[in-house]
Amino acid sequence: MKGGNKFLIFTSFDDSKILIGYRRNPLNRDDNINHDLLGFFVFDSHFEKVWGDEIKMPHTEAEMNNLAFTVGSDGTGYLLSYLNKAKSFELIKITENGEVSTYELNLNGDFMFQSFYITENTDGNLSCAGFYANGLDYKFSWSGGGALSFNTNGILHFETTTEGDVYKIKDYEFPLELINQNQSQRSQNKNAKREAEGKAGIPDVKLREIETFEDGSALVIGEQYYQRTEYTGNGNKVFFYYQDVIALKVDAQGEVKWLKRLPKLQNGVKGRGGNGVKYMRGNGAHYFIYLDNKKNLNLSVNDVPEKHQDGQGGILTSYKIDDATGSVEKHALFDVRSVKGKELFQFKTSRIFIADEGIFLVEAYMKGKQDSMIKIEVLN
Fold first, then answer.
1. How far is CA 62 from the centre of its chain?
2. For residue 35, what are the contacts with CB-CB under 8 A and spacing of at least 6?
3. What integer pLDDT is reported at residue 337 of this predicted model?
4. In this structure, are residues 288 and 255 in contact, taking their beta carbons and an 8 Å threshold?
5. Whole-angstrom Cα distance, residue 12 to residue 70?
6. For 340, which DSSP code?
7. What is the pTM of this model?
């Protein structure tokens, strides 16, 4: 899934269909009255229009939350929603003729979710996942401000037929060992106390994507992300934090193959910028590419990382997880301030492009009004 503020773009499992979605401005600002009007427009791989329509949602904004969208290989659009009053999940199916079908899903609706992800799997059914929490914490910053923090406790993953028959429901609760990984001793002591109260978790984990594979297995990827206002010498500024990556691999039966926490600590004042990660698969492994502080080159996954400040150079780095064993390696790729003697400017994570399995491109600006494209290929 990709997109900006106005449009969302989704592709089917086999990349044969593209869904472009959007939301009309509400006619009535009262959420108890207004029904969202959502656009669903499906195109083939040559960007020829297959069908398109604007669909009025069956519930008011107050009654439902739109969690996730996807498109099937046959061009059918899907929307996963949560009904607030009923505390239940609903699958909405939109076919080429604009016909809307709704299916209530047999799931525990007591979980609290910030976001969800839904995608077609190899069987033509739908694979769904979301990071859940048992509550919100209020955290104070040293500068006197504060913000709500989503206390993430685990991952709910399930599969459903396109008619809403749910199967293979799995709740992957985070073990205390994962929660304590690469944390200070003070934080570990606090987590142990919270675990006894059933409240231990990893704060502010956002779902980034699900990858489904031909053998029926799946990879769920999340990343710690939050923003907060901090006092600086020039007054208050909003800082955007991108921290650890959570990666869960499950087999075709939904059993855990491995669950990993990949430490990093990035922040900046320009939104995502050069922060965050880019995922790539290749040569029997999974790669998570990001910009890091050079002080972290030799740190293990159990160490507390030093902070990387966006716009202050950095080392393009990759975590590699072996698909079969779950073993983790960390590799430094290059210093953005010295790539064959030249410095790269305006580095952005969004300018990392996956060309093929094990091959990615990095676009960056160089002095003299020149753009450069660097090709990196992963070798065995």
1. 25
2. 56, 57, 58, 59, 60, 61
3. 87
4. no
5. 7
6. T
7. 0.85
Q: What is the mean pLDDT of residues 40-68?
A: 93
Count Cβ atoms below 10 Å from residue 44 Cβ, excluding itself: 13
Q: Are strands 359-366 and 328-335 parallel, antiparallel or unpaired?
A: unpaired
Q: Are 182 and 303 in contact (CB under 8 A)?
A: yes
Average pLDDT, the chain: 88
Q: What pLDDT sits at residue 139?
A: 63
Which residue carries 């159990």 as its tokens? 302
Report d(CA 178, CA 154) in Å as an integer.
Answer: 11
Question: Across-strand partners of 170?
Answer: 157
Alpha-carbon gap, residue 329 to 13, rounded angstroms: 29
Give the whole-angstrom CA distance, residue 38 versus residue 34: 12
Strand partners for 80: 68, 91
Cα(119)–Cα(107) distance, rounded to whole angstroms?
18
Can you say whether residue 358 is alpha, beta or left, with left for phi > 0 and alpha for psi between -120 and 50 degrees?
A: left
Q: Give the 3-state secondary structure of residue 136.
A: strand
| Pairing assessment for the beta strands 308-309 and 266-268 based on DSSP bridges | parallel
**Distance (Å, whole) CA 362 – CA 374:** 5
**Residues 94-137 pLDDT 10s:** 998 889 999 999 988 777 887 789 999 888 999 999 998 876 66
* For the ranges 5-19, 43-57, 186-200, the one whose mean pLDDT is highest: 43-57
pLDDT digits (tens, 9 = 90+) for 251-300: 988 899 999 999 999 999 988 899 999 999 998 999 999 999 999 988 88
Tokens of 219: 């990879």
- What CA–CA distance (Å, rounded) separates 324 from 333? 24
Instruction: Say how many CA atoms lie within 13 Å of 266 toward its Cβ.
Output: 34
End-to-end Cα distance, the chain: 29
pLDDT for the residue numbered 3? 45
Q: State whether the Cα torsion 158-156-174-219 is positive or negative.
A: positive
What distances in angstroms separate CA 224 from CA 25, 153, 241, 257, 269, one per listed residue?
A: 30, 13, 8, 22, 16
- Mean pLDDT, residues 333-337 taken together: 89
CB 246 within 8 A of CB 223: yes
